[in-house]
Design brief:
Length: about 60
């Protein structure tokens, strides 16, 4: 088996084509690192649809 040059040195890295290792790290072009957290944009419509009727709706 060929050693992947992206391996962190433990010899246990299993890296997929996108650069993700089984341990959760991702190849960033220079080294293995934790991927950046991508937070989806806050959608006010989702929050409003989950809430019950407002007091203005009941009057």
């Amino acid at each position: 088996m060929n050693e992947d040059p992206r391996c962190c040195g433990t010899g246990t890295c299993i890296i997929d084509p996108e650069g993700f290792c089984w341990c959760g790290q991702q190849w960033n072009g220079e080294k293995m690192a934790m991927p950046k957290l991508e937070v989806p944009p806050d959608d006010g419509q989702v929050t409003q649809s989950k809430q019950g009727p407002s007091s203005a709706d009941t009057q």
